Amino acid sequence: MKQHEKYWQGTNVVTDIGWGDAGKGKLVDLGAQYADMVIRYSGGGNAGHTIRNHLGEFKNHLIPSGIFNPKTICVIGGGVVIDLAILVKEIEELRTKGVTVTPQNLRISDASHLVMPWHKFRDGLREKSRSGGKIGTTGQGIGPTYSDRTAREGIRICDLLRRDFTKIFDETLHYQKQLLTVLDGESHQLLNRDEILKELLKMRKIIAPFVVCVLPIIREYHERGKNVLAEGAQGALLDLDLGGYPYVTSSNPGVVGFIKTTGIPAKEISKVIGTTRAYTARVGSGPMPTELFDKIGEHIQQKGREFGTTTGRKRRCGWLDIPAMKQGIIIAGADSIALTKLDVLDELPKIKICVAYKVGGKQYVDLPTVDARFMEKAKPVFITVPGWTSNTSVARKFDTLPKEAQKYIKTVERLLEKPIDIVSVAPEREATIFL
Ligand code: IMP
Known about the structure:
Blueprint (H helix, E strand, L loop, with lengths): L2 H5 L3 E6 L7 H8 L5 E4 L8 E5 L2 E5 L12 E4 L4 E2 L1 H13 L9 E4 L3 E2 L2 H13 L12 H9 L6 H4 L4 H20 L8 H15 L3 E2 L2 H9 L4 E4 L23 H8 L8 E7 L2 E3 L12 H9 L12 E3 L1 E2 H11 L3 E5 L9 E10 L2 E3 L7 H6 L1 E8 L16 H14 L3 E5 L7 E3 L1
Parallel strand pairs: 1-10, 1-11, 2-5, 2-10, 5-7, 6-8, 7-9, 11-15, 14-16, 15-19
Antiparallel strand pairs: 3-4, 12-13, 16-17, 16-18, 19-20
Helix pairs in contact: 4-5
Bound molecules: inosinic acid.
């Protein structure tokens, strides 16, 4: 068995230790070649996982990145909130590009909650009404869907499949209209019952064959020792409970989200793989101590093609932030690190790494709190290391990387106090180095 084949054995979780978008899609697509099952466990249409492989370039929002391996069963877990329009469009687009998507290789949890038009509406309404401090949500209705789930006001896929769905729908719509009247006067009139219902019933027909209770299948694969790969969404620093509230998403992107969705206990997970770029990026609001507002930041943004996959917003870019990523490692539960987008730094003669924060005259290597206000006050303390000013995107082995790039990776590994096992040097599947 090859070294990297061994890496994917067992039940492994791929998550992001930062603020998201650090290449989970690529990694899952890679690992899926050895996976019997790939489970997407949290988030919703706010996610955008970019995959570039032999079939082309894809930007999946809901369908697991394992879909390109025909032998893998892909599962959308009950912790994912589903916008049916996004899901149906994604299935159609994948099929148009020659990817097999059938009820044999895609299973959707009957417990998943549906993102409804009123959720998107409330998402926008709340953002508009915030005086300062907007969260900068993706506008996909994620927060309101998860909050209705918690308040037991949500509609699940199993409700959609019921014969008396219209009754459930009407009751929920009535409640949502009452809510919107309180929140925003007459705006609820934008919700046209017949139109929404017609669309839902149309989409129900398409997705019904994919819907099952996924827990017994997940349990069976896990217990039989099959290779199960879990795909998170967003990043650990956006965790609802342990991230920098309120600049967070409404789910648990790290290992906790996987446990909540599958019921598989932490002690039975082989390892948690945490992705981080060789620099830092963030989309939306919230503190980001190493953010660059100069030409270098612009260069990283451009070269890294740092645009939000879902919203198209420019991502904020800066130097690698070790204190933040160490915090992310704890929240994510990461054991092994995949350092991605190393090639984005190829042209820089000098590279900075933030090794600590200064707050109120004191220096912090580890964050004493998850409170976003602490990070807002933080001034980064940098070390500067030499760049390599050569093309790393062609390297396929650690030894063939320029010496300075090797040193950079080893320095980051030492600072993160976790093994870097994978380095990604370009978007393509094969542009990956196993250490
Ligand atoms: P929401 O998840 O749309 O409610 O947005 C909450 C925060 O999470 C915002 O700052 C978003 O920009 C951020 N966010 C949501 N999804 C993603 C993602 O997939 N990648 C990176 N940031 C995200």
